């Protein structure tokens, strides 16, 4: 019997050519109408989520930011960052139409033909700051992840204007700029608890001096239970602001044993999580919590995280304000770009990245 187009591609050496080199990604695979998950995506049993470990009765906090300078709101934010490392915010000040526009723009980008998207691949992109790709680091992964992404590192409006895809550039820039006040407010609340009296320019730059935005696409998957949308990882950012659509699928490590908690889509909300850089700067007080994304068998899902980071050339370590108060440092000073390169050199491996900075 003649092989179908789908089996011919997934069973042959043309696989990486189709998915990676030609820019079809997993979206292209999904649209072939596969009946079975290609073997390249089958995760080992221990990396598949066991639904009996999901705690349906638990949830991360949802914090109303309307009265953002109220002491109770500040306390809720700091407590959530300590206890959960993850929370959702509503009435956060980022206009809802800005969020809707960036979701539409993401669908527009992924709706383009593969050859158009591929112009932004690592090989062809005119800028190192714009990268369209699939999975996380296909060269380093034993099993691939069921996700395509466009990663945009912000340098300046001029650079974005010249190199970001015109189909989504304006909406992504607006989302990024409209979120800045929220990021500043959250960082001011969180660092006040770390004895930081004032966030001057140097501190601002250390906490949020560089920004990366990813447009993630998780297409319909034939065997979602066998694979991962994104494997277990923590973000290397200071703080991540995540916009998800109404499909769901993000899971966060719970406080007890091997437990996982779903982050349900809440209309108009943003998900906030502590990244490794803030865990390190807070000397472990705030935790960058492991999270993962499940693939979906019936719906395409998108998410748009903004990663607020130190600048690549910054040295990061426990804040001097904490050490002056007598805390013993748990982490050494590391060059942030070395830390990020270490993250990008290996497949997702849960919380292991942070060992790079441990004393
Ligand atoms: C979950 O799935 C993900 C997640 C992510 C990102 C998650 C985050 O937490 S992003 C926050 C990261 N912080 C920053 O980007 C800001 C600081 N930036 C830097 O320090 C640097 O720009 C740099 C990222 C280290 C790149 O430095 P550069 O001097 O230009 O070094 P390179 O040699 O070009 O890159 C090193 C190495 O990194 C890999 N890489 C770079 N960018 C990306 C990217 N956007 N996506 C994937 N991989 C990237 C790459 O392997 C580079 O080596 P090559 O030789 O292969 O080019 C992102 C994607 C997900 O799926
Ligand atoms: O898609 C999501 O909900 C989360 C994505 C994520 O964890 C990431 O991009 O770092
Ligand atoms: Fe993440």
* Number of domains as seen in the coordinates: 1
Strand order of the largest sheet: 1-2-10-7-12-5-4-3
**Number of E-type strands:** 14
- What is the arithmetic mean of pLDDT? 95
Give the termini separation: 60 Å
Cα-based radius of gyration, to the nearest Å: 20 Å
Bound molecules: ligand LKXUNLCO, 2-oxoglutaric acid, fe (ii) ion
What structural class do the secondary elements suggest? alpha+beta
Strand % is 15-25%
CATH superfamily: B-lactam Antibiotic, Isopenicillin N Synthase, Chain
Shape: globular
CATH architecture: Sandwich
Order of helix and strand elements from N to C terminus: HHHEHEHHEEHHHEEEEEEHEEEHEH
What is the name of the CATH topology? Jelly Rolls
Total helices: the number is: 12
* Helix content estimate: 25-40%
Largest pleated sheet: 8 strands, mixed
Q: Tell me, what is the CATH class? A: Mainly Beta
Low-confidence stretches: none
Protein name: Feruloyl CoA ortho-hydroxylase 1-like
Keywords: Dioxygenase, Iron, Metal-binding, Oxidoreductase, Vitamin C
GO molecular function: dioxygenase activity; L-ascorbic acid binding; metal ion binding
Cofactor: L-ascorbate
């Amino acid at each position: 019997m003649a092989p179908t187009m789908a089996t011919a591609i997934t069973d042959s050496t043309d696989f990486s050519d189709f998915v990676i080199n030609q820019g079809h990604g997993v979206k292209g695979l999904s649209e072939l109408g596969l009946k079975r998950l290609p073997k390249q995506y089958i995760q080992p049993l221990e990396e598949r989520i066991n639904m009996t470990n999901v705690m349906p009765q638990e949830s991360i906090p949802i914090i109303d930011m309307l009265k953002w300078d109220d002491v109770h709101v500040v306390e809720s934010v700091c407590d959530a960052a300590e206890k959960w490392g993850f929370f959702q915010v509503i009435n956060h000040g980022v206009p809802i139409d800005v969020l809707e526009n960036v979701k539409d723009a993401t669908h527009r980008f992924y709706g383009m033909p593969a050859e158009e998207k591929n112009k932004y691949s690592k090989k062809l992109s005119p800028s190192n700051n714009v990268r369209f790709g699939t999975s996380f680091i296909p060269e380093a992964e034993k099993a691939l992840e069921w996700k395509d992404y466009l990663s945009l590192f912000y340098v300046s409006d001029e650079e974005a204007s010249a190199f970001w895809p015109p189909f989504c550039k304006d909406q992504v820039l607006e989302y990024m700029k409209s979120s800045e006040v929220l990021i500043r407010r959250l960082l001011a609340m969180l660092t006040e608890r770390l004895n930081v009296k004032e966030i001057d320019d140097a501190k601002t730059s250390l906490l949020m001096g560089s920004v990366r935005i990813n447009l993630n696409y998780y297409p319909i998957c034939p065997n979602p239970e066998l694979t991962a949308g994104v494997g277990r990882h923590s973000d290397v950012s200071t703080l991540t602001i995540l916009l998800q659509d109404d499909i769901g699928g993000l899971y966060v490590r719970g406080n007890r044993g091997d437990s996982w908690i779903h982050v349900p889509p809440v209309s108009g909300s943003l998900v906030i999580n502590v990244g490794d850089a803030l865990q390190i700067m807070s000397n472990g007080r705030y935790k960058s919590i492991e999270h993962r994304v499940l693939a979906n068998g019936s719906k395409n899902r998108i998410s748009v995280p903004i990663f607020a980071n130190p600048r690549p050339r910054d040295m990061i370590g426990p804040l001097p304000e904490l050490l002056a108060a007598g805390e013993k440092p748990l982490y050494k000073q590391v060059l942030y770009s070395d830390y990020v390169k270490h993250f990008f050199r290996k497949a997702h491996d849960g919380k292991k990245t942070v060992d790079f900075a441990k004393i």
